[in-house]
């Protein structure tokens, strides 16, 4: 399995490494963790294995060495040892759009709550931007829940802008603004909860794309960043 | 929006047309229907808009003309009229793997229960096979729930083979076979429910990939077909 784009940073006296996803092995390592990382919410249906299997070269893992391992093992460079000594503390799963030329999509970013606030989200995105830029992308999309104001604030902090929802009159879409539907969805469909930023600014109504991902808790904030 | 690979067949005195997905417009048309097509199960979290937006050139829609429209409107060829007169009765959403050379993945196939048994599933897959073959693919994967025996039977009928799960001893994976976990998951994570075949043959235990899509109802049958 190709391993590339690795980068180490020393933050808070811990050494984080961001590396390309290996596919199924990394999926197995994180899929049992994400619900807990989101405070018990059921996130796994939004992250089927297909994303790690088919888009592993634009999916990145943030790992630390397992501190319970002896120092010699931590320094071992053999691939099999490397896998055993690592603990995954975050990941960003994304892909190059197949039908939208020059565009990429960041689908899912998750950070272990115990490792939030250390800049891991920005580090993961930095690797993702480089990877998709190499593949010809100049625009990146991300989608989050309007209830997840921390995620919206984080994305804005790293250069994303929220895409306004089209006004009801412009499209004649009766669902938009006319149903009295609450603008803040429950967390059930929340894509990411970074907690990287503490800014809890309510999301403007005109930025909420009603029923974007379906009629059941599918309201979304759509973010984009030019590379 | 490019429209290609259209094909019409006359089945049961109805005219079905399979055409390439338009993206967001088609997503909005179907996302509110899929839960009902699955008998009320909540399927929409498995089909976020990103699939229709980013993989529309390998996603196909089965449509009929709206019979409530006057005959003249049915025959109109103008693109705007075409959209209004159509009723979506099925779709297959898939993509070319980005990181697995020569492979494609069929993610989600749904057929309106009122139009099952007419060969629409096979027709949709036929278009998908042609589309991904043109893009260099020689292998197609599909994943379904072991509880969905109709889907397993359908896929086998059109040439897929089930990929055996790796034996527990071979990988030392304690989750496999050692937990006493029930082999039939609930329908909550079921990817597709075609009802195209009536064969209700139980899925062999060795074909069930335990926790494939996560520990919560993530048991899956993995199918593949060589093109």
UniProtKB/TrEMBL annotation, chains A, B:
InterPro entries: Acyl_CoA_acyltransferase (IPR016181), GNAT_dom (IPR000182)
Lineage of the species this protein comes from: Eukaryota, Sar, Stramenopiles, Ochrophyta, PX clade
PROSITE patterns, per the entry: GNAT
The protein, known as: Ribosomal-protein-alanine acetyltransferase-like protein
Organism: Ectocarpus siliculosus
GO molecular function: acyltransferase activity, transferring groups other than amino-acyl groups
Pfam family name, one: Acetyltransf_1
Domain of life of the organism encoding this protein: Eukaryota
Annotated spans, Disordered: 169-218
Biased segments, Basic and acidic residues type: 202-218
N-acetyltransferase domain: residues covered: 16-179
């Amino acid at each position: 399995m190709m391993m590339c784009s690795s980068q180490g940073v020393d933050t808070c006296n811990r050494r984080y490494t961001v590396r390309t996803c290996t596919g199924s092995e990394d999926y197995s390592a994180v899929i049992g963790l994400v619900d807990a990382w989101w405070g018990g919410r059921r996130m796994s249906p939004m992250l089927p294995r297909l994303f790690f299997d088919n888009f592993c070269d634009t999916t990145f893992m943030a790992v630390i060495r397992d501190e319970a391992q002896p120092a010699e093992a931590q320094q071992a460079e053999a691939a099999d040892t490397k896998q055993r000594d690592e603990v995954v503390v975050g990941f960003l799963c994304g892909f190059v759009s197949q039908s939208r030329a020059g565009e990429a999509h960041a689908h899912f970013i998750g950070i272990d709550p115990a490792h939030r606030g250390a800049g891991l989200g920005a580090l993961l995105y930095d690797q993702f931007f480089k990877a998709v830029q190499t593949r010809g992308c100049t625009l990146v999309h991300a989608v989050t829940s309007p209830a997840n104001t921390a995620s919206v604030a984080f994305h804005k902090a790293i250069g994303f802008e929220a895409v306004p929802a089209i006004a009801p009159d412009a499209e004649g879409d009766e669902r938009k603004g006319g149903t009295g539907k609450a603008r803040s969805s429950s967390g059930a469909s929340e894509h990411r909860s970074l907690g990287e930023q503490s800014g809890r600014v309510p999301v403007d109504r005109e930025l909420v794309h009603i029923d974007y991902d379906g009629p059941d808790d599918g309201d979304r904030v759509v973010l984009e960043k030019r590379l």
